[in-house]
Amino acid sequence: MTLPTMSPAEALAELGRVRLDEISLDDMLLRVAELANRSIPGTREVTVTLVRGRVGWTGAFTGELARQLDEWQYDQHRGPCLDASASGDTISVPDMATEDRWPAWAERARAAGVRSSLSVGLPIQGSVVGALNVYSDSANAFEPSSVASAEGFAAYAAVALANAHLYDNAATTAAQMQEAMRNRAVIEQAKGIIMGSRRCSPEEAFALLSKISQDTNRKVREVAETLVAQAVGKARG
């Protein structure tokens, strides 16, 4: 059994100092797993399960063995991390040798040297739920104080992950909007070039761009960029 290298309060304080504009969602997930691994008594390895619809995956892990135990649950569509994700509850497996809810998974875990586990539900965001999964190489490793630490950390981590998820979505949306604006700008430039050379309407200019796009199997933006680049080259020449 691994002894904590920091207190739960220290782990929460460190998590609270993370700036969302300086870290990706994947890095945030890994930070949560690492801090939980360092602060929850009895812990050997930690994973963070994420579930969208019926699809589950491990967003972060501190050890390959723990990730493999998660993956087995996803393949079988059953197990403590999935049940905790769905219910938001805390699910404890005190002793893999006597576990009868998921006997095949428990046998696999015991053969790999894992003797007990704890999964705490994480309500991360509307369409995404998850669980903080803590694995130990000792049976009955998670005493009430450890469970309380895990639940307290998970509650705080859920807020941090929800904020990171929202920030990540907002940043992605902003990037997509900027790209759309750039695409529109170059298309408008190309339309202006066509209108000036052919003395046609904006609608006719765009129709020509669309036809060239279809004939050459390229996106309208790519056709527009080529036309603008050619015009700029001629102007400089």
In CATH terms, the superfamily of the largest domain is GAF domain
How do the strands line up in the largest sheet? Answer: 2-1-5-4-3
Mean of pLDDT: 82
- Total tally of structural domains: 2
**Percent range of helical residues:** 55-70%
Q: Report, as a whole number of angstroms, the end-to-end distance.
A: 74 Å
CATH C-level name of the largest domain:
Alpha Beta
Total strands: 5
Major beta sheet, specifics?
A: 5 strands, antiparallel
Helix tally equals 8
Low-confidence stretches: none
From the alpha-carbon coordinates, what is the Rg to the nearest angstrom?
26 Å
CATH architecture classification of the largest domain:
2-Layer Sandwich
Helix/sheet category: alpha+beta
**Morphology:** elongated
- The fraction of residues assigned to DSSP E strands is 15-25%
Element order, helices and strands?
Answer: HHEEHHEHEEHHH
- How would you classify the quaternary structure? single chain
| CATH fold name of the largest domain | Beta-Lactamase
Descriptive report:
This protein is α+β, with helices and mostly antiparallel strands and 237 residues long. The protein has 2 domains: 8-172, 2-Layer Sandwich (Beta-Lactamase); 175-236, Orthogonal Bundle (Arc Repressor Mutant, subunit A), CATH 1.10.10. 59% of the residues lie in helices and 16% in strands. It is built from 8 helices and 5 strands; from the N terminus they run H-H-E-E-H-H-E-H-E-E-H-H-H. It has a 5-stranded antiparallel beta sheet. Strand 1 (45-52) and strand 2 (55-61) form a beta hairpin. Helix 6 crosses helix 7 (202-216) and helix 7 crosses helix 8. The longest helix has 55 residues, at 144-198. The chain is elongated and about 80 Å long. The model has no long low-confidence stretch (mean pLDDT 82).
